[in-house]
Amino acid sequence: MAPIIIIKDEFGTISPSSTMDELPKPPAVRPPRRKRAASDHHVLELVESGGASARGGSAMCEEGEMWIGHLGADEEWGDEVTTPTTVSLPAGTHLVEVAAGNLHSLFLSDEGVVFSCGFGCEGPLGHGTEASLAVPRPLAALADVRVDCIAAGGAHSLAVCVQGAVWSWGWGRYGQLGHGDELAQLTPRRIDALRKPIAQVAAGSAHSLALGADGMVYSFGRSAMGACGHSACAASVVVPTRVNALAFERVREVHAHAHASVALVASKSALVRYEWGTLPGGATVPLPTMRAETAADAPALALALGEA
After folding, report:
1. How many domains does the chain fold into?
2. What is the C-alpha separation between 190 and 26, in angstroms, rounded?
3. Is residue 266 assigned to a domain?
4. Does residue 2 sit within a domain?
5. What DSSP element (H or E) covers 302?
6. pTM of the model
7. What is the pLDDT of residue 62?
C-alpha cells in the first residue's frame, strides 16, 4: 500500500493523498450557462429572441409600492410584476446567461459584455457608484474583457473571463469578494488569489464559490453558517480556499443559494450531489455531504436553487 502523504497547495490548504502520480487528473470543466435565474424577489429567463424576461418585486416597500428596478423595465418603483416582462436592452443584444441577486440582475451577451441593473447600495452593479439603475447598463470596467460566465449574490457579483480569470465587486463585508479584506468594491476587481483557470462561479447571500477548470472547488465569504465547507475556520474566509473534502472528486457544476452550497459530480448513470451550509429546514452541515441521485433529479435540484 502506498504511503499517505500531505500536499500543500498554493492557497495554503492541506489535503491527504497517496502519491503525486495518483492524484486525479479531471478533464477540463465547462458547466452549462444558466438560462434561468431566481432570487427571493424576482425571476429572470432568456427568451428565444435572445433577450430576457423578468417578473417579481421586493419586500422593500415605499407607500405601498414595491422596488422593481432589478427587473430592468425602466421603472424603479411600482406594483409587483406577475407576468414575464421584457428587459430593456440595446437593440441587437443577444444574451447567453442571466444571474439574479437579491435586488440586482446581471445579463451576459454572446459578445462577452456584462449588463447590470437594480439596487446599487454597496456597489453590486459595478459602475463605480452606489446609484440604482432601472435599465441594464454595460459595465465599462469590463469593456476590455470578454466575459464567459456570471453570478449574482446577496449584494455582490462575479464574472469569469474566457481565459479563466475572475472579477468580483459589490458588498464585501464577509470576504465574499475574495480580495483578502472585507471591503466593498464599486467596480470589478480581479481576484488575484485565483491563479488557476476558473470555469464557473456561484454566489450566495454572503459567500462565493469558484470551480476550477480542473474540477477543484474554492470557497470564500461568510463561513459561520457552514457555506464555505471547511471543517474549522474563522467567521469569514477572505481569500479563495480549496474545499478539501472535494479534492478527489471531479466536480462538474457548483451552485449557491442563501447560506448553502452544492457541488454536482457526474457519473455514467447518475449525479452525485454534495451539499453543505445551512440547508432548507435549518440544519447546518459544515462539510460537503454526499447524496446520490439519478440524473433525472438534476432539473429539480437546479429549480430548487433558482438556477434552472
Report:
1. 1
2. 26
3. no
4. no
5. helix 298-304
6. 0.87
7. 75
As beta bridge partners, residue 274 has: 263, 290
| Grid cell digits, residue 201 | 462561479
Residue 239 belongs to some domain of the structure = yes
Contacts by 89-92 with C-beta closer than 8 Å and gap 24+? Answer: 89/51, 89/52, 89/115, 89/136
Would 26 be classed as within a structural domain? Answer: no
Task: Count Cβ neighbours within 10 Å for each residue of 90-102 and write b for 16 or more, e otherwise.
Answer: eeebebbbbbbbb
Q: Which residues have a Cβ under 8 Å from the Cβ of 173 and sit 6 or more positions away?
A: 182, 184, 206
Q: Cα 100 to chain center, whole Å?
A: 9
Which of 180, 169, 247, 237 lies closest to 212, judged by CA?
247
Alpha carbon of residue 85 to chain centroid: 24
CATH number at residue 54: 2.130.10.30
One-letter amino acid identity for 240? Answer: P
Count of helix runs (H) and strand runs (E) in the chain = 1, 25
Helix (H, G, I), strand (E, B) or coil at 20: helix
Q: Give Cα separations from 272 to 291, 297, 299, 302 (angstroms).
A: 6, 10, 14, 14
Residue 116 near residue 127 (C-beta atoms within 8 A) = yes
Run of H or E residues at 286: strand 284-294
Task: Specify the 3-state DSSP secondary structure of 22.
Answer: helix
* Residue range(s) defining the domain that contains residue 130: 32-249
pLDDT, one tens digit per residue, over 156-215 is 999 999 999 999 999 999 999 999 999 999 999 999 999 999 999 999 999 999 999 999
Residues 6+ apart with CB under 8 A from 54: 42, 43, 44, 45, 70, 71, 72, 73, 81, 84, 85, 87, 105
